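Many introductory courses stop at the sequence. We go one step further.
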Amino acid sequence: MSTELLEEVQSRTKRSNGTFKLQRCELNLQAYSHTGLQLKHVAPIRLTVGPMNLVHPVYVSPLNTYPLLIGKDLLNRFEPLIDFKHLKIWTQVREPLPLQSVNSNESQ
């Protein structure tokens, strides 16, 4: 998520007397059209997708180009069917699958 979206989430969480746990991390990314990017924060965020709720780690990006990018790790939890022609996505599960560990043997 962008830093702008992070600030909005923090503000809404504070107004509703909720808790928001931002954690330090060190993750270096090599973006397709960028020279490189270091992500320094991650937060477990509660997401609602259709009728399903889940908590998923969301990394904070210093770039504000896109408010939120959905990663393959989140998509995998829904076993999605994606129609790129009509820009539609469907899930094939009734509840989100567990988060795969970063060290799993699955190629990303």
